[in-house]
């Protein structure tokens, strides 16, 4: 018996093959007098492989069981296809029914809405669109590691359970083994103190950067923000590099280089799936990626960005003013209409940024930055970290954080402190930018959002 061949390798064959085994799921079956056609897909690529099965081969008497969604194994010969639009097809010598599909199988050969497909998240990867999404997600995860490993960054696994609130926003999921009201006696809880699901691996990442120079984390994070927008999820993945002996300028350099590299990788290595997105999701997706690759980032201070927005005359839904966070509509105006290129906004007001961001000498701003791209807005947010112990402790007090809870973090400033910087990339936001998929629920395998954890 031949060794299994993935359909993507069969389709890429340079020559016919006398013995081949393919396994996958039936997309369609069409019967004619004396033979049948099967369209088989195994998820290894967007394309399916046509199988021609004569009525006299072993297993053909069971072919009626191979309805849409059923699993099959086909042995046969890979030959040049007589049909248009395909190079190869398989002439079957044996067909085996591996698993039948109940008539209620919901993925028939017709268009389905994204909303409907979210209700069958366990089956939607079998659709063309979501097969493409999650192949791209896999390839981009590899590209992330490749980018940092080639630059001698050390990959660090930071904890999922933490006692720290990195962002200081209090939007944390409590982790407890206590019943009733755990706040009444937290000392008896499993860890002996209140603990939470992490919102970021940054603080722990800084500890490793202050020993190994350049590190990055890539893992799940959680935020109990009661938001049901297309850009927010309760569980998402974050990429967070940290660099010792680095300032804000170096941080912006790396962020811009990273984003361009991810756009280039997608164009170079995900062309087939990207073509599907361009056809059915966002016609401009390839042009947008090329736009980001070809044009240098424009850098603009936050204060100037606010003035540009005020002078624009645009009737924005959200107000524009100093001390207010920029919203997606503001960010897109800067990239798409004003500068007509990707934009890095830097030096934000201190009062709207977390305690760990370095205070600039003007006493008003923090050395923070956001990278903005067309179609999405912010994709990367980062900052130089506050390396001065006295300033860091004052920031903690200002944010009503207890010094004893962050004593280990302050130690990094007591023992050989150095300037250091880093940023965070929401992996799902990055995928939305690279694929054109407009809803975060559709670029993560099983979305976790307020009121929804069904799978």
Structure description:
With 455 residues, the protein is α+β, with helices and mostly antiparallel strands. It has two domains: 7-99, OB fold (Dihydrolipoamide Acetyltransferase, E2P), CATH 2.40.50; 124-442, BirA Bifunctional Protein, domain 2 (2-Layer Sandwich), CATH 3.30.930. The protein is built from twelve helices and 16 strands. The protein has helices spanning 7-11, 114-118, 128-150, 202-212, 248-269, 271-280, 285-294, 302-311, 328-338, 389-398, 407-414, 427-435, and strands spanning 17-32, 35-41, 49-54, 71-80, 88-99, 154-155, 161-162, 174-175, 195-197, 214-222, 235-244, 298-301, 343-349, 365-373, 377-384, 420-426. The protein has an eight-stranded mixed β-sheet with strand order 6-10-11-16-15-14-13-12, sandwiched between helices. Strands 1-2-3-5-4 form a five-stranded mixed beta barrel. A hairpin with a 7-residue loop joins β2 and β3 (49-54). α3 (128-150) crosses α5 (248-269), α3 crosses α6 (271-280) and α5 (248-269) crosses α7. The mean pLDDT is 94.
């Amino acid at each position: 018996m031949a060794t299994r061949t993935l359909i993507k390798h069969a389709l890429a064959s340079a020559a016919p093959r006398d013995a081949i085994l393919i396994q996958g799921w039936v997309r369609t079956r069409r019967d004619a007098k004396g033979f049948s056609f099967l369209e088989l897909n195994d998820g290894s690529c967007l394309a399916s492989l046509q199988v021609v099965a004569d009525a006299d081969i072993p297993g053909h008497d069971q072919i009626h069981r191979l309805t849409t969604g059923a699993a099959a194994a086909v042995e046969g010969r890979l030959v040049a296809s007589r049909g248009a639009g395909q190079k190869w097809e398989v002439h079957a010598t044996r067909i085996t029914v591996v698993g039948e599909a109940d008539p209620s199988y919901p993925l028939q050969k017709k268009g389905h809405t994204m909303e409907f497909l979210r209700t069958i998240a366990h089956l939607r990867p079998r659709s063309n669109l979501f097969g493409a999404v999650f192949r791209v997600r896999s390839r981009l995860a590899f590209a992330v590691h490749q980018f940092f490993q080639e630059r001698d960054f050390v990959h660090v696994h930071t904890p999922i359970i933490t006692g720290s609130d990195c962002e200081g926003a209090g939007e944390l999921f409590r982790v407890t083994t206590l019943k009733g009201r755990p706040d009444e006696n937290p000392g008896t809880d499993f860890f002996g103190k209140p603990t939470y699901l992490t919102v970021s691996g940054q603080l722990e990442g800084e500890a490793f950067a202050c020993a190994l120079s350049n590190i990055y984390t890539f893992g799940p994070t959680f935020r109990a923000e009661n938001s049901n927008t297309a850009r927010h999820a309760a569980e998402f993945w974050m990429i967070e590099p940290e660099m010792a002996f680095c300032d804000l300028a170096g941080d912006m350099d790396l962020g811009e280089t990273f984003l361009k590299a991810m756009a280039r990788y997608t164009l170079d290595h995900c062309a087939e799936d990207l073509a599907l997105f361009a056809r059915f999701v966002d016609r401009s997706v390839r042009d947008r990626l090329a736009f980001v690759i070809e044009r240098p980032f424009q850098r603009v201070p936050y204060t100037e960005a606010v003035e540009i927005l005020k002078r624009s005359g645009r009737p924005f839904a959200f107000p524009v003013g100093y001390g207010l966070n920029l919203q997606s509509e503001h960010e897109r105006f800067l990239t798409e209409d004003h500068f007509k290129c990707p934009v890095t906004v830097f030096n934000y007001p201190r009062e709207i940024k977390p305690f760990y961001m370095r205070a600039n000498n003007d006493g008003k701003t923090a050395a923070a930055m956001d990278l903005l791209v067309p179609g999405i807005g912010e994709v990367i947010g980062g900052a130089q970290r506050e390396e001065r112990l006295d300033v860091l402790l004052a920031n903690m007090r200002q944010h009503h954080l207890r010094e004893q809870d962050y004593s280990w973090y302050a130690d990094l400033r007591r023992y050989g402190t150095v300037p250091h910087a880093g940023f965070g990339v929401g992996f799902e936001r990055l995928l939305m930018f690279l694929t054109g998929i407009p809803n975060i629920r559709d670029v993560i395998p099983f979305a976790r959002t307020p009121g929804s954890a069904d799978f």
